Amino acid sequence: MDNGLLDTILHPHHDKPAWTNWAKNQSCHPTEIFNPETLEELTKIVFMAKADGKKIRCAASGHSWSSSSVTDGYLVVVNKMEKVHTPIWDNDLKSWTVRIETGVLVKDLDDKLRQNDPPLTLPSNVVLDSVRYGGVLSLGCHGAATKTRTLPDLVSEVTIIDANGDLNTFSEAKNPEEFAAATVNLGLLGVIYTYTLRVEPMFNLKVMWEHVPGIVPYLRQQANERFDRFEAIRKKYDPNGMFMNATFAGILGH
Ligand SMILES: Cc1cc2nc3c(=O)[nH]c(=O)nc-3n(C[C@H](O)[C@H](O)[C@H](O)COP(=O)(O)OP(=O)(O)OC[C@H]3O[C@@H](n4cnc5c(N)ncnc54)[C@H](O)[C@@H]3O)c2cc1C
């Protein structure tokens, strides 16, 4: 890549960077806001943060109401990491899969999957198509169907750059425990680079309204179990808290 362009991305010129989420209930003034386009740029940002003693938070479309992107350190906006690889049939998983970069829009993946032969889709998805997979999967978003699980349950592999700048690959086959935490990482394990998602041939949908008894306690129990497993793994990949902020430190009991 052109060194001048890389320099502009890594050293953006601004007076006072500011970030606000979509709902405008969260805002912050990071030291720097980065808009990387490649793995090389992402990795350099992590090295710079390490050298400067800065913490990193990430943001995608900014539709979360939570403070998960709020920082006075480095903010990495992943919206230019938008590559969608060609879907493949995975013989081990007995499923179609598609590998995507973290900043891919829900709408864009939908459009690309439709163009495949056969046309493909996710079995369930969030209602908004202007959000991005990094945001949707990191925070464990639910879909809009009762017979499917959360969207992170569709992930078969995730790659994350950790606090040392190393790219780690998490998959169920490699280490189910770490993989479970990596899929719903709350942005605390590092910067997500790619996800591989299980997708399926398009199907007809029937919409029904029905009360599902006991769904809230069930979801709460699922969340608590994931949370405990996650914290143990976070400490391994981010021992010095480069990806933590005050809010998450509070939530995780630090
Ligand atoms: C009108 C509206 C409707 C919604 N409908 C639904 C719905 O139907 N179902 C549902 O479950 N949710 C729904 N949501 C919630 C929304 O889907 C989530 O807040 C989702 O996280 C937003 O995605 P985003 O791209 O805006 O992510 P952002 O809000 O930009 O990011 C969320 C977090 O993801 C993490 N993150 C993102 N990218 C990376 C990365 N590369 N590396 C590390 N961490 C990363 C960061 O911690 C970041 O703070 C809705 C929200 C709105 C405003």
From TrEMBL:
Record keywords: Oxidoreductase
GO molecular function: FAD binding; oxidoreductase activity, acting on the CH-OH group of donors, oxygen as acceptor
FAD-binding PCMH-type domain span: 26-202
KW DNA repair (keyword) present: no
InterPro entries: FAD-bd_PCMH, FAD-bd_PCMH-like_sf, FAD-bd_PCMH_sub1, FAD-bd_PCMH_sub2, FAD_lactone_oxidase-like, Oxid_FAD_bind_N, Oxy_OxRdtase_FAD_BS
Matches recorded under Pfam families: FAD_binding_4
Family, as annotated: Belongs to the oxygen-dependent FAD-linked oxidoreductase family.
Stated name of the protein: FAD-binding PCMH-type domain-containing protein
Native source species: Linnemannia gamsii
